[in-house]
Amino acid sequence: MSRAEDPTPFPTGWPKARYRATRRAMKALRLADHLLRHGLAYTPDDATDEVIRTAALQSGHRQPSATTCSLVRAVLALLLFPAVSSSPTEDDIGGLVVRMVVTVDDLPTA
What does the alpha-carbon distance between residue 110 and residue 100 come to, in Å, rounded to a whole number? Predict the structure, then answer.
């Protein structure tokens, strides 16, 4: 997805670091989705930098940095092995909400 296809622009007034971190997190989510949908990686260990960069080329993204590759692995770990504090029932799993906070220079972005 390019910036032109993004239907909702970010609000004005954010610091540049927050825009960058949010864009990086969104790119990591798209790449993790591509890896899972195309069977390129099923675990964070399968998602090497080379595999992630190949997926980026296939999906039309620019080559991701090492930081973005690391974030893709974190997203895969979060999606595949969610940390649940209590034992959920089968009904609870459908409504599981995951919130990810990306930090830049020790400052949370969300």
Answer: 8
